[in-house]
Design brief:
Elements: H1 5-9, H2 18-24, E1 29-30, E2 35-39, H3 46-61, E3 65-72, E4 76-77, E5 83-85, H4 98-108, E6 109-110, E7 116-122, E8 128-135, E9 143-144, E10 149-152, E11 155-158, H5 161-168, E12 176-187, E13 191-202, E14 209-219, E15 222-225, E16 228-230, E17 233-241, E18 247-256, H6 257-262, E19 266-274, E20 281-288, E21 295-296, E22 304-311, H7 321-330
Parallel strand pairs: 2-3
Antiparallel strand pairs: 1-5, 3-8, 4-5, 6-9, 7-8, 10-11, 12-13, 12-21, 13-18, 14-17, 14-19, 15-16, 15-18, 19-20, 20-22
Length: about 325
């Protein structure tokens, strides 16, 4: 069984204490593929909070496994939809215990979910939080209330059809993620020179992907990659991508000052990627570059006005094909 507690907390699940979780949230923590927060604020019904918990557990079972902290600090989301939490826990008064939680999971998530571990931690006032660990299930796909949930890019979502079909066929797809970061801004007097780094990462420990192709799309200006110039489009491929061996690379964009002004001081970057075993995804970024401070970029969020990372076509299934084509042409 995958044991996530030592990875996340540096201690086994059953050795955790309430003070360990308090200490964990002294600094801001972000949700990840394997870590989800469920606070228990005063407002709202218990049933709604329990429903959200069971969706999260279902998502972990159908994905790579992980931990849910029920009674975490109240979550916040940034402009890009990333969830984080910091500060006081939200313990609650409950008669639930480890066995009752496991029985609820077993009776409400189908098929029967194995590999669930639960630790109930009591606050000094007698209220409680729960830390629940779920392993990647060999009985996937699981459903809760007639929906299949999955953990994608730090969010629990309804599973897209291709993943449900693959799980039913006992076919594992590697989870490939791609990101671009703005690292530095310089100028030569005529152009802004934007320095970026890309990374394409296989988050599945035991499943390699093959024949991965990826493309960079940019507007306006010229990309400089490995000393060569590309006007808006660059593509490449790699035969195999395995966990712990990401595809990385730095590149520059030369954006003429006049062209930037014509483009409302906006710069857009897109990274798309597709493997033999994994579906096509795309990460897109829109930056505003207007009299920026030069040098190292310590926080690219100061420049980002729009970011969508690792989106599948199913994530925008409400768009027509024409909308999708136009959104790519407009990039």
């Amino acid at each position: 069984m995958s044991n996530y507690s030592p990875i996340i907390f540096n201690i086994d699940l059953y050795d955790l204490t309430y003070s360990d979780i308090e200490a964990f949230f002294v600094s801001e923590k972000e949700e990840t593929l394997n870590l989800e927060f469920k606070s228990y604020p005063a407002q709202g019904s218990h049933n709604d909070k329990e429903n959200a918990l069971l969706k999260a557990i279902c998502g972990l079972l159908n994905s790579e496994g992980g931990i849910v902290i029920w009674g975490a600090p109240v979550e916040t989301k940034d402009a890009q939809g990333n969830t984080s939490a910091i500060g006081a826990l939200t313990p609650f008064n409950t008669t639930l215990d480890r066995d009752r939680i496991i029985n609820k999971i077993s009776s409400l998530i189908i098929p029967l979910a194995l590999g669930i571990r639960v630790q109930k931690l009591n606050a000094p006032n007698g209220d409680s939080i729960f830390v629940i660990e779920a392993e990647k299930s060999s009985q996937r796909p699981h459903q809760y209330k007639n929906n299949y949930h999955i953990r994608l890019d730090g969010q629990t979502k309804i599973a897209p059809h291709y993943l449900i079909e693959a799980m039913m066929k006992s076919t594992d797809f590697p989870l490939i993620r791609g990101h671009v970061r703005l690292k530095r801004i310089e100028t030569d007097g005529n152009n802004y020179i934007l320095y970026f780094r890309k990374v394409i990462y296989n988050s599945s420990k035991y499943i390699n992907d093959l024949n991965l192709t990826f493309s960079l799309i940019s507007v306006p200006g010229t990309m400089i990659i490995n000393g060569n110039s590309y006007n808006g489009f660059y593509d490449n491929s790699q035969e195999i991508i395995s966990h712990g061996r990401p595809i990385t690379g730095d590149f520059r964009m030369l954006v003429p000052l006049g062209l930037l002004t014509q483009n409302n001081n906006e710069v857009q970057i897109g990274l798309s990627f597709l493997g033999q075993k994994s579906p096509s995804r795309m990460s897109t970024y829109k930056y505003t570059i207007s009299n920026p401070p030069l040098g190292v970029v310590t926080d690219e969020n100061n420049f980002i006005v729009e970011k969508r990372e690792n989106t599948l076509s199913s994530d925008v299934s409400n768009d027509s094909d024409d909308d999708k084509i136009n959104s790519i042409l407009d990039l």
